[in-house]
Amino acid sequence: MEFNPYQLRLIRRQKNISVQELGELLGISVAQVHRLEKGERRLTVDMLIKFCAALQLEPAELFFEPSKVPVTGHIDENYEVTAPLPSDSNTVWVDAFFSDVENLAAMRWKPSGDITMMNGHLAFYYRHNEGILENCWGNRSLVVRDDNTQCVGWPLKDGDATHIENTGKRTEFNVDIVWASPIIGVMAPFMFGSNRPALKNGI
User: Fold this and answer.
1) What dotted CATH number matches 6-63?
2) E-strand spans in the chain?
């Protein structure tokens, strides 16, 4: 795990703090802030603590780079999964400590006319080419039926038959499932951002 000085600049911009404002908070010059953000000046432990206090963040946040994750669809009130809505970004920045992020994908909960707490939440799963993963059975998963429709539900085995238990204890019986991946986490939208500001002019 390595410290990335460019995280300082990224986080500062996310918090809408200018270089001058940060310099005043730290008691250093604008030039010194630039040098720290470019990795041209060594970040001491004391300065790290000051940075964290000024930017209101935990030290660990400077050691994890966010990763872009594709948003592959949205989940409606019936737990059916369809294409992303035009108003949604097709990627989301993930700051959480997921493993294997390069294979991670997300779906956005968008129940029609629903203003419950689930609205806008992101459900994360892993993309893979292994058909139905064994840990999908009995666990909430993204499921692809043989007609290529997708839903979120609990795949169940009953002898040779497979069923999908869905929202409101609604069960689809005798469904041919061709692919499934367990939902590894559902997180609130405020924990993520669809877009990060582009860095301009080295600022």
Assistant:
1) 1.10.260.40
2) 67-75, 80-82, 91-94, 104-109, 122-126, 141-145, 150-158, 161-165, 171-172, 177-182, 185-187
Give the separation between CA 34 and CA 28, rounded to whole angstroms.
10
| pTM more than 0.70 | no
User: Among 70, 57, 55, which Cα is nearest to 22's?
Assistant: 55
**Domain locations in the chain as residue ranges:** 6-63, 67-190
Given a cut of 60, whether residue 96 has pLDDT beyond it is no
Look at residue 36 and give its three-state secondary structure: helix
Angle at the Cα of 12 (from 41 to 61), degrees rounded to 5?
A: 80
d(CA 10, CA 5): 9
* Chain position carrying tokens 């270089």: 19
Residue 197's SS3 state is coil
Domain 67-190, architecture per CATH = Ribbon (2.10)
